[in-house]
Amino acid sequence: MAVKDTEPYLPECLDSILDQTFPDWELIAVNDHSSDRTPQILAE
After folding, report:
1. What is the DSSP letter of 2?
2. Are 32 and 1 spatial neighbours (Cβ–Cβ below 8 Å)?
3. Is 3 helix (H, G, I), strand (E, B) or coil?
4. What is the pLDDT of residues 2-43, one digit of tens each?
């Protein structure tokens, strides 16, 4: 998943992904030089 300046939407997006019932998945998030808190949200 590519992300750039997605601070307002990223927590809800990640929560939605984590709430999925399929147990065998991997998410790779690539930060594209965000100027907001996107990298910190991903690190959390």
Report:
1. E
2. no
3. strand
4. 999 999 999 999 999 999 999 999 999 999 999 999 999 999
Paired tokens of 6: 């997605």
Which pLDDT score, from 0 to 100, does residue 17 have?
93
Tell me the three state secondary structure of residue 42: helix
How many residues would you count in the chain? Answer: 44
The 3-state secondary structure of 8-22 reads CCHHHHHHHHHCCCC
Total structural domains in the chain?
Answer: 1
Range of the domain at 10: 2-43
Single pTM value for the model = 0.80
Read off the amino acid at residue 27.
Answer: L
